[in-house]
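Technical note accompanying the year-one report. For the benefit of new consortium partners, we illustrate the data format agreed upon in the data management plan: each record pairs a sequence with a structure-token string. No post-processing was applied to the example shown here.
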Amino acid sequence: MKKLLSVALLAGVALSVTACSSDYVVSTKTGEMIVTHGKPEVDKDTGLTRYTDQQGIEHEINNDQISQMIKKD
């Protein structure tokens, strides 16, 4: 019984953590629409924006290629 309760608690915590992160839509100058998981990180020193896609793979894109970034509801 304790095992079942701990698994349920762990699942609840995992769901609450993922529910807190907002997804964003990044529009590129070539017309590509990229949906990110969580807020992209803009690094002004390198000129790159780092984001994680919906499959959990991390990517970087040059800031010059981004036309806009919108928080998805």
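Partners are asked to follow this layout when depositing records. The chain has a mean pLDDT of 83.
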